[in-house]
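Let's practice the habit of predicting before peeking. Look at the sequence and jot down your guess about where helices and strands might fall. Then scroll down.
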Amino acid sequence: MSKSHLEDKFDLIVLALELPEPEREHRFHHPRRWRFDRAWPDRLIAAEIEGGIWSHGRHTRGSGFEGDCEKYNAAALEGWTVLRFTSGMIDSGLAARTLELAFSEAS
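Done guessing? Here is the structure:
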């Protein structure tokens, strides 16, 4: 399943939960200019939609995984909560439950 298709499904979940609309491709780190797939900067909540995990995509290979670790650690040091979602989590409802919890705790 393509990442864009997963992102579309994720956006429908956000809409169904009546959450604020997230920013797409939000840049959060000035020297590196990393981006989050979806972000709510006012709440420091970000969502990464992880496509290609079963097809040995960039995020599951050594250098890609290491780069992601660097990005997520930098985000944590800046106070971000980064939620990572796979296609299975989106399809099973776990992504929705996690988003609901994240937003209830951030209120």
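How did you do? The helical segments are 3-16, 62-77, 87-92, 94-106.
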